Amino acid sequence: METAEFTIPLWLDLTAVGLGGVQGALFASGFRGERRLDLLGVAIVGIVMGFGGGVIRDLLLNQPIGALQSNWYLVTAIAASLVGMLLAAPLQRLNGVIVGLDAVVIGMFGAFGTTKALDLGLPVLPAVFVGVAAAVGGGILRDMLMSLPVAIMHVGSLYAVAAAAGCLVLVGLDAFGVPLLIAGMVCIVVTSIIRWLAVIFDLSLPEQRMLYRRKVATETGVLPVIRR
């Protein structure tokens, strides 16, 4: 995937697509009951996860969709989805594997999105926005495709926050003249660590209801009881 001054190596871009495909297939294979999917359904979810972040990134940047510029993207996504299906049974009880892959995929797409945006001349904040959108885009499309609540819209474990932190680190390093490739690698590490720690320690942003209760308690001295 080429820009005027910086090139994301094809093998690295395909690695992100492959990891996304494996993670999506593992996620889809874990459903039971009414939501269980056949082999084609699992493969489609894997392909969407592999392609989603890159497609959203390129659309936001008004660039040709990278995943459609080479045969290798679709081949990689399909192969990764098949691998994810094969690994689903052995890894059924290892939810940490799915979370770990998810964290790395978020970091990679966030780094690639921010890097490409910076190289195209976007200001810092729009570049970070593109990176975060690319990082969470695959998950959003996956949830919509499976008629699930969109993960980043609900109380959870710092999904988009981890991506934003990594992307901010990337633009900070770039401002100090660190090569984009190195800054991108640091972004992936930072994003992954924050995501892993959030899952391990069950960290999340304050719930809207909690903020409302704190506001009322501050103004009236009475803590309201809100029942579900």
TrEMBL record:
Its main location: membrane. Belongs to the UPF0126 family. It comes from the Bacteria. It is a multi-pass membrane protein. Keywords: Cell membrane, Membrane, Transmembrane, Transmembrane helix. This is Trimeric intracellular cation channel family protein. Residues 10-88, 101-173 form the Glycine transporter domain. It comes from Agromyces lapidis. The chain crosses the membrane at residues 6-27, 39-60, 72-89, 96-114, 120-141, 148-173, 179-205. It holds the Pfam family Gly_transporter.
